[in-house]
Specification:
The complex is a heterodimer of chains A (about 850) and B (about 100). Chain A is of the alpha/beta class and about 850 residues long. Helix content of chain A is about 30%, strand content about 20%. By secondary structure, chain B is mainly beta. Chain B is built from no helices and nine strands. Chain B has strands spanning about 5-10, 20-25, 30-35, 40-45, 60, 65, 70-75, 90-95, 100-105. A six-stranded antiparallel β-sheet of chain B has the order 1-9-8-4-3-2, with no helix packed on it. The chains are: A alpha/beta (about 850), B mainly beta (about 100). Chain B: InterPro entries: Rieske_2Fe-2S, Rieske_2Fe-2S_sf.
Chain lengths: ~850, ~100
């Protein structure tokens, strides 16, 4: 043992708070106990606890035991010697010794020393605070330590305590006020500043916050300096500078914090507002002595928030262990997001514009306690204050921290416009909240995957299968993963690839396919995939893309198709299929209905169901029966199974409806006849309504057309009413149905050529931007409108109905052979 | 442990290139896959997740994807790469007559 000790470096940490303990954890993670003999000196007689949670403890939201980060057993099991309840009194830099007040260990020898003494409550000078022997008068509490908090709880529960005054209207003061209120006390907050939380937010935001605090029944006294505490045995009230007296039974002092620098100062280290350190967290005065946390001044800044402290601890551990000797701390952009007395408050960067050219957006709704203010400089978010609402905070924090590009329409930074790109405050979601409703993945599972080492969104999705169902949760999954990784997310190079197996984005992939004239999926793999390797997950998207690009020239390899596209039906949970014949515009005939009825009986369809797209679905059809089903129906495929143009829903229009102003039924039939079955990056659902009453739900379709008075037609794009709800954007208004058909085709082709795989129009349209789409498709700003029209015409000409094609003779051996030969299908219950 | 028996499933041509087909063998359902390079692999035909038909799945040289929920199984040993229980893998070869021979037992 002594031999090992002799070769291990002695690392001594003064301070067992969050900064000191985190530094030791980071050091042990990098080098293990074999290289360092670690001693921690902590003046509180406990293991390490989460100081941030003290206000929760006060409010009874956390139990006493729940706030420990490292209980005393942790130190033993990690080989760390903890001197708890011991105070360091002096650092002898020449002898490399720390002197303590503990008679059993009066000195501790170090090779390297870390000062992490943190901070203490600032106590303003007030008469009557102390008893003659220097203790606080009964009922006076600073709010800083676990013992302070326990003392407050015990005192607040006493029968004699009915009223409390909190001195300080900052974050901690307001939290203390709310906590005390939860113990049944009536509470007043006395604040010397002009508005609440003056360190973090501006006067307008402070005023909005004050209304919310007032409504909670907490009295607020601004510009109020406390000059005296009243009562001799125990507190009976306070007196303000203007002579006002507020009666109370306890006083909590939360007037800010001051760095603990006495030890460093006394031992000859450079101290200004706090202990001065360089970018390696090293003191200016001694190469073997470092400092970290709230006791530190770095590049003129002293931080009182936990995030910068974590960043400092990581750098310090890299330097101490040599894991990264060049590691440097460059300061932190601090953003705060908290609940202040139950009211969410987020603040980052500037409170107000500073230059003439700064953009400043403000929205205030004091009645509802809502305040939002953004400061934008050079298209970057440089400041934000949000009170009373957290819907946009996750987005704003990211935009601020990483300098992300901002939406052109600034309003979107303040409000959720219903467009599928909504942001949520992920940190407030409970762990058991199911995020991916298709695969049943909750937030906790995502966070766990990140903690287990997944560093990209894709790897988390692969691991948990979140986002791999309908995909509508992907935005939220990304947000949670980014939040859980706390900025440690590596950029996923594959995020921009069109398919996972080929490292190219869509434009580059299409360019390569054209340049090398690759007309089959296997040729694409051979030419463009790493090592020419096939990738099962990429096949379907490539098959669709190649068909779109080459039409007649496409070399169709059936293995590249998903099962639905191999057998032209939608696979069901038991391995049977659903069959949906085409009914253009939702119009059918008695003859068609008779044939459908006959088929349903002959092949024992277990369920006959009307679809949302105005068609009839026959369910529970066995794979081997499909060709005969199609032959008997004698109708074309409705493409209810494909990533393709699906259906056009219509209303009856002007021929019958007394409100109709256009022949919506005919236009729906025309559109479906022309664009039926076209493959696209994701499914396309359309509708045509005969008047703005919108009975065919055109406003919430990928493409929706609405007749308006005067023989004109509105064309909407990017609507959705599935997993996402979004009203489509009005692309243009046209004068006749023919032009509507053309514009619809032009949009479809632009979408086919430019959307990512499985990117629905409700994401694609906002991504490209309505104005840009209007410029390209309506005004022909890029001069490609004719090319688009021509390309879609080629695809239309190449279209063949797959049912009549494959009903005659199978395309491959065993195309319709059962894949579950021993199962008796269908297994669906009969109604 | 009973001795392994080899069963002739008929011509390999029944299976299109890079696809799978299912066979009933001695009370079991076995999916046989014919890779693009001509080699053959055999797995239990039923996905342990929700009973999906693996013979309907898309494949590459390494894995087959269940068509119902895209769970992946390695063709070589039946282990899942998406966290599902494994499926049984069988020895399968193409004999000199071009017939598939699968070993069970």
């Amino acid at each position: 043992m002594s031999e090992i000790s002799a070769t291990r470096r002695r690392l001594v940490v003064i301070g067992n708070g969050m900064a000191g303990a985190r530094t030791v954890e980071e050091v042990l993670e990098r080098s293990g106990p074999e290289r360092f003999e670690v001693t921690m000196i902590g003046s509180e007689p406990y293991g390490n606890y989460n100081r941030i949670l003290l206000s929760h403890l006060l409010a009874g939201e956390e139990a006493d035991g729940d706030i420990y980060l490292n209980p005393t057993e942790w130190y033993e099991s990690h080989g760390v010697r903890l001197l708890s309840g011991v105070t360091a009194t002096r650092i002898d830099r020449y002898a490399k010794l720390v002197n303590t007040d503990d008679p059993t260990t009066p000195t501790v020898r170090y090779d390297q020393l870390v000062i992490a003494t943190g901070s203490t409550s600032f106590l303003p000078t007030m008469e009557g605070m102390y008893t003659d022997d220097g203790a606080f008068v009964a009922g006076v509490f600073p709010f800083r330590t676990l013992d302070d908090t326990r003392g407050m709880i015990a005192y607040a529960r006493h029968d004699h305590s009915t009223r409390a005054v909190v001195i300080g209207g900052g974050l901690l003061g307001l939290e203390a006020a709310r906590g005390l209120q939860s113990h049944g006390l009536s509470v007043d907050v006395v604040h010397a500043g002009t508005h609440l939380m003056s360190a973090q937010i501006g006067p307008d935001a402070g005023a909005v916050l004050q209304r919310s605090v007032d409504r909670l029944g907490i009295g607020v006294h601004l510009r109020a300096r406390t000059t005296a505490l009243l009562g001799s045995e125990r507190i009976t009230g306070i007196r303000l500078q203007d002579g006002t007296e507020l009666p109370c039974d306890m006083v909590v002092i939360a007037a800010g914090i001051r760095p603990n620098v006495e030890l460093a100062s006394r031992s000859g280290f450079t101290v200004e507002r706090a202990i001065v350190v360089d970018d390696a967290m090293r003191t200016l005065d001694d190469d073997d002595v470092y400092a970290v946390g709230e006791c530190v001044q770095h590049r003129g800044e002293v931080y009182g928030l936990v995030a910068p402290v974590w960043e400092q601890a990581v750098v310090l551990a890299d330097v101490l262990t040599g894991a990264d000797p060049t590691a440097a701390y460059h300061g932190s952009r601090t953003s705060t997001k908290l609940k202040v007395a139950g009211v969410p408050v987020a603040a980052m960067g500037l409170q107000a514009p500073e230059r003439d050219t700064d953009e400043h957006l403000v929205f205030a709704e004091p009645r509802r306690g809502i305040y939002r203010s953004l400061v934008i400089r050079d298209d970057k978010l440089v400041g934000a204050t949000v009170v009373g609402d957290e819907s946009k905070v996750a987005f704003l924090t990211q935009a601020y921290d990483r300098g992300m590009p901002l939406p052109e329409e600034r309003l979107r930074m303040m409000f959720d416009l219903a467009d599928g790109g909504g942001d949520v405050a992920v940190e407030d979601l409970p762990d058991d909240l199911q995020v991916c409703n298709c695969n049943g993945v909750d937030k906790g599972a995502l966070v766990h995957a990140v903690q287990d080492g997944c560093t990209t969104v894709q790897s988390v999705m692969d691991r948990t299968r979140a986002g791999k169902g309908c995909g509508s949760c992907k935005v939220q999954v990304c947000a949670i993963v980014e939040w859980a990784a706390g900025g440690a997310l590596t950029v996923d190079p594959s995020a921009n690839w069109y398919v996972p197996g080929i490292p190219l984005d869509k434009p580059a992939l299409m360019a390569a396919i054209r340049a090398q004239h690759l007309t089959s999926v296997s040729a694409v793999f051979a030419a463009l995939a790493p090592a020419g390797a096939e990738d099962a997950r990429s096949k379907m998207a490539l098959a669709s893309l190649l068909k779109m690009m080459w039409d007649d020239e496409y070399v169709d390899e059936r293995d590249a198709r998903f099962i639905n596209d191999r057998v032209h039906a939608n696979i069901q949970r038991d391995g049977t299929f659903s069959v949906v014949p085409q009914m253009r515009g939702g119009v059918t005939t008695p003859d068609q209905l008779r044939r459908i009825a006959d088929v349903a009986e002959k092949f024992d369809a277990k369920l006959v169901k009307l679809t949302g797209g105005q068609r009839i679905d026959l369910l529970g059809i066995r794979k081997e029966d499909l060709p005969q089903v199609w032959a008997d129906l004698g109708m074309p495929s409705g493409y209810a199974y494909g990533k393709s143009f699906r259906t056009v829903k219509t209303c009856v229009g002007q021929d019958f409806c007394r409100f109709g102003v256009g022949d919506s039924t005919q236009l729906g039939i025309d559109i479906e006849t022309r664009y039926q079955g076209l493959e696209s990056p994701a499914k396309l659902k359309l509708a045509v309504s005969g008047c703005p009453r919108n009975c065919a739900e055109s406003y919430v379709k990928d493409i929706g057309v609405v007749a308006i008075e005067g023989g004109r037609w509105e064309v909407y794009v990017g609507g959705a009413a599935g997993a996402h709800i979004r009203k489509g954007d009005l692309l243009c208004t046209v004068d006749n149905p023919e032009t509507a058909v053309t514009i619809v085709g032009r949009f479809i082709q632009y979408y086919r050529e430019n959307a990512n795989w499985l990117e629905r129009t409700y994401s694609f349209v906002p991504r490209v931007g309505l104005e840009r789409l209007q410029a390209i498709l309506v005004d022909d700003s890029d001069g490609i409108a004719a090319d688009l029209d021509e390309a879609v015409a080629r695809s239309v000409a190449a279209y063949q109905d797959p049912w009549q094609q494959d009903a005659a003779a199978p395309a491959t051996s065993g195309q319709f052979r059962t894949s579950l030969p021993l199962e008796v299908l269908p297994k669906v219950p009969v109604r | 442990m009973t001795a392994a028996t080899t069963v002739n499933l008929g011509p390999v041509d029944q299976i299109p290139l890079a696809e799978g087909r299912a066979f009933a063998v001695d009370g079991r359902q076995i999916a046989v896959f014919r890779l693009r390079d001509g080699t053959v692999r055999a797995l239990d035909a039923v996905c342990p997740h929700r009973g999906g038909p693996l013979a309907d799945g898309q494949l590459d040289a390494e894995v087959v994807l269940c068509p119902l929920h895209m769970n992946a199984y390695r063709l070589a040993d039946g282990c899942s790469t998406t966290g599902q229980p494994p499926v049984a893998a069988y020895q399968v070869t193409v004999d000199d007559h071009g017939d598939l021979r699968v070993q069970i037992g």
